[in-house]
Amino acid sequence: MEKMNLQKMKFMLQKNRHQILWAGVAIAILILIVILIVSLFLDLEDKKSTQASEFTVNSISPNFGPTGGGTNVIISGTEFVNNPSVLRVDIGENECTNLQFVSSTQLTCITPLGTVGAKDVVVTNGDGQVRTLVGGFTYYAILPLQSSNITLMYCDTPKKVDQTTDCTLFVDTDFIYYTGSLEVRVADEQITTCNLPASGNFVVCSGVTLPNQVGSYQSKFRVSGETDWQNGNKVNVIIDIYTQGLTLYYDAGHPGSYSGTGQNVLDLSSERKDGFLGQNFFVQDNDPVWVNDQYKSFSFDGVNDLIDTTLNSNFSNDITIEVWFRRANNNSSDNKQTLVNVYHLDQTANCGYGELSNGYWSFGGNACRNRLSLEVRQQTIQATVNNSNTINSTFIPNNLWQMATITHSSNTNETSLFVNGVLHQTTNQELVVGSDGVIKIGTYLDGIGGFEGNIAVVRIYNRVLSQSEIKHNFDQEKTRFGFTNSTVLVSGVPEATNFGVLTVSDQEQTLSATLEGLNFFDRRQLFVPWTATIRITDLTSGDNVITADKISINPQFSQQTVITGSGLYNVLPEAGYFEGANIPRLLLQNLDLNGGGEFVISPEISVDVQPFTRSGVYTGVVTVDIV
Asked: Which of 35, 392, 478, 511 gives the lowest tally of CB atoms within 10 Å of its CB?
């Protein structure tokens, strides 16, 4: 029994020993695994640390330059070491100059001489390590610029007399590849020299001289040192009109607008909305005829002649239309004859399914023919708004040039009609915005409402010109169209007048006399009212004086007779007496003979003679001032 217990105890001791042994093995294995993981982690961190601090060369900027060197470059990377005796940058086979250590991530230097092509950038760090940016910098050759390298030159046009222009030249690649300078001129004027920019594909030559007279002139360019000139565009020199907002400008008398032959009518504005005589580029019966006289104009037959433009207009924009025209002698019918028409289809009207007959849609009525037009009707100029609302000028004579202007504001809906710079009538009418319409000259629609006479100039603006701007434009061209005399002539002004026999009296007396035959001749062809002021000096007889403040004019007894012309707006004022010495005795206000005429006025003069005024023959001087 005791022996069995000892054996049992021995077995248990052996079993416990084995368990302890295996537990120790497990602990050892666990310790080894922990050590391995820690070792791997530390090794990974060490590698990361080593990689983060590694010397690299990442880029060079700029990465191109001329073979002659001299390009300032920036080299970017990591872990640059500042050791001037070792730090070095080579591009191709040559060393950069002026190497500067900026930071551990940036160096700067100046490129050396090189040959055409891509070259390696080799950086030797301050610690002796070397890194290469393969093909990192490309050398190019700088060549002398030639005219063949210039692909286009365009000079700003139009320009006014006494202005200069700016010319822009474009190169085939980039100016960095070229050396030299450019020369520019217009016609045979002074040469302007332009230096090439450091880079880019265009250069602007400013202040190029222009001929000092109206015309169309060829621009030219060449490279300095060359003999032959190359052509750019034509530069149109125009009169001193307003050009802001100018979107169309046809002038039969300007060689840049019409050459005298062919169908093309060129736009002098910068918008280049060129048109053509008739409906296409071929000669047809409905082509206006160019008249090469002193005025230079297009003649319209009143049947189907027209000029088609390429300018679209929308009534949502402001607009001003100016036309210089001369109506035919027999043009006095009631038919509307169109100078310029802006035609729109009203998209809100029932126009889409009707038939077009004689220029009118069968459905939708006037709304389908929404328009803004400038016309001649009977003996007046007429502006039509929305095909129904019309405003008219006063009488205009046949066969005399006039400048008609219509303005429309899309903001206020105000439409105004001017003749020769003078406002004649205004209306308020909203223009319904429809589809864009092409502007036609000399016709309402093709073959309808044709104008009979001559049209020389048409200008269209995308803004409302003020009256002073319209008058300015008129003044620039009035001499061309026969408005040579800008004043009113007066003849028959008496230097003295006899008021009859004066007797000495102790009472105030009144004597009367008539200034016979003051003739006024209006030769201006202007619709501009003017004022005539008649002045009378003191009346004298030896040393005796009747002062001017005692003289008055009796308007109700004054006579006026129209010799030619259509009449006056307002001849005499309500009162004819004005106090003060040698001041206006009579004002004839708002005189206008509607484009030319003559009238005679014979005003009656009254003299208030004071008591005891000495008798005698009294004389005075009459003067007439015209404003």
From this structure: 35
